[in-house]
Design a protein that fits this description.
By secondary structure, this protein is an alpha/beta fold. Helices cover 48% and strands 12% of the residues. The strands form three sheets. The protein has a four-stranded mixed beta sheet. Strand 2 and strand 3 (76-80) form a beta hairpin. Helix 6 packs antiparallel against helix 7. It is globular and about 50 Å long.
Length: 296
Amino acid sequence: LKPKEPAIRRYKIAAKSTSASMYKQLSANDGAGYMMTTEGEVLVKELTKDISDFSELLLYSFQNEFGDKSIATDNTHYSMPRIKFSVLLTMPPQAAEKLIKLTLDKGLISMLIIQQLPTNKLEWEDPFADEGEPLEDIFKKIGDTMVYAIYKEMQRLKDREIQFVMTPEQKQDFSKTFKEQFNENTQLFGVTFSEFQFRLGVICFKLAMVLSMIKKYDESADKSKLFGDDEQSLLCSDAIYNIAKIITITITMRTATAATTMSTTITMKTATAAAVTTTSIITMKTATAAAVMIMT
């Protein structure tokens, strides 16, 4: 038998990729990967013909679900137990508008965050000014310490279930808050906005879970063992819950504002159906500057 060439593992996926190529690379990485580029319009151009497959991929990732795909051109089938795919893009408003139009009936629109960037506060910054430690070094330190420690802890506990839980009071406030948000925003923006609204609860829960894990790391004396032998749960504190709730509500307002001001050709009831999912952004380069974030 002819030996099979091993798959090349690349966690960073190029923006100039077809959905078939994305599935192939994610499959080689057991479903994990990310895309980050300042030329998001390249992705929009590539996805014009297969936007449905890309929407499906992000939906799998948003729900952390099992994903599989058969590629007819090379008779290949890809199966991944859980897709973890994050996207961070920057593009001009015209490209973002095209992306929204492409995805209105594909489901992807409900997995986007659109952020409007104010242009009345723009100012020149001295490129030669000493701003202290570079951001790259700061992020590397965080990655080498906190992120790596949490990763190692998850590997240690891979055969043990740790359940993230909210208090009864938090659960009651959660349902009350998002029910009010749903009723108000559906009346303002129409039924299409409901897709976005339904996913907001998931986003708030995920944010609270991630922030609680960071808090757990910060408060642990032993960074190599964050959970004790008898611990079976991660409790959400009131402070973390309120932070996650405020972030989520802010996302709602900014998404609606940015989407409705991007273009007069997109009606309010459709353009504002932008939603949240775990990590991606599109920053705009003109006065109508907006950003799209896909969180997986």
